């Protein structure tokens, strides 16, 4: 009994000391580096929880985060694996709070994605977040993945200077194939949009990237000439991925089964394009484990089981707790070259 009281008293004293010195220590840790700050917070948390032990398994650092802040899109790609299951978008101040928390936990790169990120508030919501991440959070890399159809020159004039990389999705250089895939809105040309955005990227000094999903409709295509002409800093080539609840299964909004290709077919495509030096291949397994995906509620999505299992929101439980349920494989992230030259200032581009 007596020893229990002493233990409680000791925990209380340690807790109070932590509170008193927290501000001072946080400043010191920030000065020493963010990793130390993260470690320090974990120790404080373990003391507060009464564990009194230093955690033994390292918490992954959210170095590079993909924030899918909206699920809405103006395209209807048949294999889409982040579909419009909700129309929810966080109020901008809450989104900024979450982004700041991620920065404090070690985030260096943020990628905004969707749905189509330029759809919500005609790109203004996105523009404000891009500006906030570069100007206030001073992140080394701020990027966007978009289908390119809703971007305007005015947007580049207002926000281009805060953006490092813009990736535009393009799966085919034949309009009919894009139509079959659903990679366009009505009869508007996806390729015209792509070329327009490409020239704005040069004009406003934003690094240009292309993302392609290889599927049954484009697996035989030869894209070498068009990719050479576009000259992106990176060409990400994904193998079409099936995710239960998104593009497969009873409740899914898409049926991607008809788009799926084998590993061999994917490899054939890669071999055909092997001379393209900026090509970065992403097999299904790499995609499942090596991305940190945040959904519209700022919940990490764990894709390891072939579906998207959400954590709690980082806004409710903090980054360190939520990231434990992200399924993120930090080693795989590094192995797939997830960390690269991602700040436009370091790319030495000829604009
Ligand atoms: S462009 Fe296609 S793949 Fe991307 S979010 Fe829209 S429907 Fe999905």
Automatic annotation (TrEMBL):
Membrane topology annotation: Peripheral membrane protein
CDD domains found in the cross-reference section: Radical_SAM
Keyword vocabulary terms for this entry: 4Fe-4S, Antiviral defense, Endoplasmic reticulum, Immunity, Innate immunity, Iron, Iron-sulfur, Membrane, Metal-binding, S-adenosyl-L-methionine
Keyword Metal-binding: yes
Requisite cofactors: [4Fe-4S] cluster
Residue ranges occupied by any Radical SAM core domain in the UniProt entry: 59-279
GO molecular function: 4 iron, 4 sulfur cluster binding; catalytic activity; metal ion binding
PROSITE patterns the UniProt entry points to: RADICAL_SAM
Keyword Disulfide bond applies: no
Family: Belongs to the radical SAM superfamily. RSAD2 family.
Full protein name: S-adenosylmethionine-dependent nucleotide dehydratase RSAD2
């Amino acid at each position: 009994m007596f020893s229990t009281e002493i233990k409680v008293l000791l925990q209380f004293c340690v807790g109070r000391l932590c509170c008193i010195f927290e501000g001072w220590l946080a400043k010191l840790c920030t000065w020493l580096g963010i990793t130390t700050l993260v470690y320090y917070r974990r120790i404080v948390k373990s003391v507060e929880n009464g564990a009194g032990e230093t955690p033994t398994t390292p918490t992954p650092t959210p170095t590079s985060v993909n924030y899918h802040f909206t699920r809405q899109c103006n395209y209807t790609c048949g294999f889409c694996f982040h579909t419009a299951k909700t129309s929810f978008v966080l109020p901008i101040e809450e989104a900024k709070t979450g982004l700041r928390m991620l920065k404090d936990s070690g985030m260096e790169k943020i990628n905004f994605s969707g749905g189509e990120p330029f759809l919500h508030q005609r790109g203004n919501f996105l523009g404000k977040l891009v500006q906030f991440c570069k100007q206030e959070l001073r992140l080394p890399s701020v990027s966007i993945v978009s289908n390119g159809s809703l971007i305007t020159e005015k947007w580049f004039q207002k926000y281009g200077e805060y953006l490092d990389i813009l990736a535009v999705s393009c799966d085919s250089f034949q309009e009919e194939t894009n139509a079959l895939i659903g990679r366009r809105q009505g009869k508007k040309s996806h390729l015209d949009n792509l070329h327009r955005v490409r020239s704005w990227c040069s004009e406003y000094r934003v690094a240009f990237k292309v993302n392609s999903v290889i599927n049954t409709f484009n697996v035989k295509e030869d894209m070498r000439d068009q990719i050479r002409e576009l000259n992106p800093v990176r060409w990400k080539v994904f193998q079409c991925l099936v995710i239960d609840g998104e593009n497969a299964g009873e409740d899914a909004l898409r049926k991607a089964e008809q788009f799926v290709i084998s590993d061999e077919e994917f490899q054939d495509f890669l071999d055909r394009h092997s001379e393209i030096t900026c090509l970065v291949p992403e097999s299904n397994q790499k995609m499942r484990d090596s991305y940190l995906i945040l959904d519209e509620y700022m919940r990490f999505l764990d894709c390891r089981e072939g579906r998207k299992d959400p954590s709690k929101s980082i806004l409710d439980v903090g980054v360190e707790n939520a990231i434990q349920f992200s399924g993120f494989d930090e080693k795989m992230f590094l192995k797939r070259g997830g960390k690269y030259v991602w700040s436009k200032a370091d790319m030495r581009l000829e604009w």
